[in-house]
Structure formats: structure tokens, C-alpha cells
Amino acid sequence: MFLEQGKLQELGFWLLDSLSTTASKNVGDGNDDDSAYRRDLKVAKGFVALPNQNDLSLKLEKLNDLPPRNLDLYPNLAKDRIIVVLYVHNRPQYLKVVVDSLSQVTGINETLLIVSHDGYFEDMNKIIDGIRFCQVKQIFAPYSPHLFSDSFPGVSARDCKDKDVASQKHCEGNPDQYGNHRSPRIVSLKHHWWWMMNTVWDGLRETRKHEGHILFIEEDHFIYPNAYRNLQILTSLKPEKCPDCYAANLAPSDVNSRGEGWASLIAERMGNVGYAFNRTVWKKIHNKAREFCFFDDYNWDITMWATVYPSFGSPVYSLRGSRTSAVHFGRCGLHQGQGEKKACMDNGMVNIHVEDADKVPNIASDWSVHIYKNQPGYKAGFKGWGGWGDDRDRHLCLSFSNMYCSTGTSSPM
């Protein structure tokens, strides 16, 4: 839902005060290295072509620098932690389900949970505010179209609409390959994901030097109690069992599958439910920023499958167990927000049976690996579903790639 500019400004002033107060007792380390990094970051962003920010955008960006909450409850994180990142938009009925499921995950208190928001939505914020089971940090995409009511990357008065011809309508914008002009609420999906990836890997104090795996989940993913322990096993086995695997997955790439139930590991195409990879893989992905940003499809995952992964030159396999540890349960798409006229109505009720086998690690270190080859799905040569033809979106996407100075060294995949 795109708010009026006055309401955006009013919300922005209130937001900074309330969230800053909540986190004020958790102070950052304030060391010289961090201060130098922040100075370098300001210089780097000065050379990146980013849209002019409004008050709310600026205030949300400042909130991203606040330390995690619950440091008093969980002062020490495990050294071998797998950081968890939750990518959300505005489906509170779903977010309640995933947060409840995360609260039951064994080991979640050993790590940091980062919640990446596409804009600011009070109902979503209240749910995250109630988390007490781990350290939690909220970040807000400051260039989300949902924050800009009268200018790019939101809707501006001069924007072409639908199938307008720019030369005839004297409007601004480039159509996609099917002749359609941009829809801000649609392009926000891909913008948010790419901004989140760049920010988590290269921008945040808490993660920019993290070399290990980071797990990415979404607001309509039910996470089983054994997910974190299973993922630890998979990432430890990956170098030996599947050295060419780029990632580990909690769930099969076929979202309708619950797994084979075999006594073996599975190597297959990377799925989009509960995927984890390390900095080495991130650097390979980041090096393909132009391919990602210029592919005419508003879906981040289809863009990865159809253009980024094929550009690596070899099959991109992910390692998983033969029994799922995460389930996609949503019926409403991310672009079907609660404030839209054609909003998808779903009360978020789920009926997922958690069996005893889902409560404990169920992956054995002596299992062999079964490899699925030539699986169906999006591949190189697919043209894309469109929705991503506007040069402004493509260049904003590229700007996200250059916001931060990457640090750290490479490690095996």
C-alpha cells in the first residue's frame, strides 16, 4: 500500500523515536575499525546513483545501524553459527506462523535472526517486536517503492502506465519485452531481495565479515524444529560429500514435495525454500550483478535460475536431506499486499503436522549422495516473464551492487 506523503513523514518521525528507544540499551562496539568502515561507506555511497530519499527513507536507513535486540538474553553467539535471514513484505498472518515455528527450532538461540522488511508496516513490526527466543535485528529497505508516494522508485506523475507509448503520451519509462510498463509493487520484490543480499553480506556490521553460511527464508516458510541442526550437518558434510555443491537446502526444489525418505543425501538444483550459502558463493553471485539486474523478469529466483546460475559454467547443485525441514505454505503472493484493492485474503491458518522425526536431526554422516540431473524448471534460454524493462529499475539494481565495500576472504563452497 502506498501511503500519502504527509502520512509517510509523520510515521517516519514517530518510527525513529520508538524503535531507537527500544534498542537504546543495546549499544554497538564503537571501535575504530567500525568507525572507519562507516566513513568509507559514506564516501562509497556518494559515488552511487541512488534516488533522493524522503524523511521516512532516511530514518529507516538509520534504523539499520541499530544493534540487535535481546543482547541481554543472549549475549554470546555460537562461533560456528549459521545466521538466519527472514525476507518479509506485508503478510502478518503468515509472519506469525513462521515466527512461531522459528521459536521451536532447536539451536535458534545460538544465532542471529535478521528480518529484512520491504517498507514499514506496523502489524509486521509488532510481531518482530515480540520475539524473545534469539537475538533479532530488523533492517528496512530504504529504497522500497512502498516508501515513495510521488517519485521513483514509487509512482511518479510522469510514469507511463500499462501499455502506454512514451512518445505519444509524453510519459517516462521503458516497457518490458511484452510492452508493459513497470508496476512499483511488482518490481519491489526483486529490488528488496537484491538490496537485502548486498546489505547482509557487505553492509551490516554484524555480518559483513561473516565467511560461513547464511540461511535465507521467507514469511511463508514453516520451519521444522530440526531445521537448524540439520543445516549444520549439511554444511559440515558438503565439502566432503558434495564439494561442487554451491549451497545447502532445507527443502526440495519441488515445493510440493516433502522429500523421498531415503537413507541418502540429495544433490539437486538449488531451491528457493530455506537455502544457505557462504561468502564464496555470494561473491560469484555478486560478480553477475549485471546479468541479474538486466534480465527482464521481476522474480529474483527465476532470474537466478535462468541467467545467473547458468553463467557459472557448471551445474549449480545444492545439498539437502531426503526429508524436508521446511515447508512453503503461502497461497498469497508477495505482491498481493494487504492494502491492495485486489488483496489476496488468507487468514494464515496452516495444518502442518510435525512428527517426532521432524524434531531431531535426521541426517546421517555416512549416507551417500544421490544426484538429480536434468531436472525440469527454469533454465538458460528462458526469456523471462517481464515486469523488469524500465532502465531506472535496472540501474537502481546495479547501484545496490555498489553500495558497500566487500570485505573478507574466500573459503571453499
Topology of helices and strands:
Elements: H1 5-23, H2 32-46, H3 55-63, E1 83-88, H4 92-103, E2 112-117, H5 122-129, E3 135-140, H6 166-169, H7 184-202, E4 214-218, E5 221-223, H8 227-241, E6 245-249, E7 265-269, E8 275-277, H9 279-286, H10 289-294, H11 300-308, E9 317-320, E10 326-328, E11 369-371, H12 391-401
Parallel strand pairs: 1-2, 1-4, 2-3, 6-9, 7-11
Antiparallel strand pairs: 4-8, 5-10, 6-8, 7-9
Helix pairs in contact: 1-3, 4-5, 7-12
Structure description:
Keywords: Disulfide bond, Glycoprotein, Glycosyltransferase, Golgi apparatus, Manganese, Membrane, Metal-binding, Signal-anchor, Transferase, Transmembrane, Transmembrane helix. Substrate binds at residue 118. It is a single-pass type II membrane protein. There is one protein chain. By secondary structure, the protein is α/β, with parallel strands linked by helices. It has one domain: Alpha-Beta Complex (Spore Coat Polysaccharide Biosynthesis Protein SpsA, Chain A), CATH 3.90.550.10. Helices cover 33% and strands 12% of the residues. The chain contains 12 helices and 11 strands. A 9-stranded mixed β-sheet has the order 3-2-1-4-8-6-9-7-11. The protein has a two-stranded antiparallel sheet with strand order 5-10. Helix 5 (122-129) links the parallel strand 2 and strand 3 (135-140). Helix 1 runs parallel beside helix 3 and helix 4 packs parallel to helix 5. The longest helix has 19 residues, at 5-23. The protein starts with a helix and ends in a 12-residue tail after the last helix. The model is unreliable at 24-30 and 335-345 (pLDDT under 50).
